[in-house]
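User: Once you have settled down, look closely at the record that follows, taking as long as you need, and be ready to discuss the fold:
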Amino acid sequence: MKKSAKQSHLENKVLRKLQGRSYKIAEYIFQDEEILALQDYANVVSIKRLGFNDHGPVHMLTATLNALTMLELLASAGILLNLEQEGIGDLDDSRVVVLISSLLHDIGMTVARDRHEFMSVNLATPIINRILDKFYSDDIGKRVILRSMAIECIFGHMATQTIHSLEAGLVLIGDGCDMEQGRARISQKLSDSAKRGDIHRYSSSAINKVILKKGTIRPIKIAVEMSESVGFFQIEEVLYPKIQSSPVKKYIELTAGVTGKEVKQYL
């Protein structure tokens, strides 16, 4: 299946965040025809049928990169994720969970928008089993745990369900941080007429950059730069509620502002 230059670029950026088993699993997923087909068709439904913004491979890779970047910042600050805290796995196992679930979290969009997080769980479970059977073939206990955690990450990514692990919290916020203007450009090109969901497209178009970096008082800083104040809709209706619902919230600073104007501190 042919990939866009943007897709290949993001895959390479994700790979640079990984090592060991998580790296091998990413390579495997990036060549998996079923996953690639699901990601592509999710975009057909989202953009062409429903007129929403990107929910395809570029979005899922961007969400993955965001989540892995924040995972890295937590680890650098000495914060143990739940698998390590609970003596179940190591940091790379957490990377595996975040990687797999981020790359599959929106495949339920191939079926419907409403409650698509549960559709994603249904479609992703046999794929998760297939991946874990291959790469954790000698450890059924680890396979069971990582599968359950990956499912938590997927069904929790819309902040409609309570989640409890830092891994799931990273996926939730990583998804919410993908709101730069490029995410809305395809749906805008396809239609100039007003329709349901336009506020998401136009507010997303006002977001110039989302920067994830080390914070000054907390391990993670999310800094959002925008060209117009309509971008605050994305912060206050999409990203901020996701952070509020995430177990990672206590480790996050959040700022947002229109270029050249005063920056608003949310967290």
Q: What stands out?
A: The longest strand covers residues 207-214.
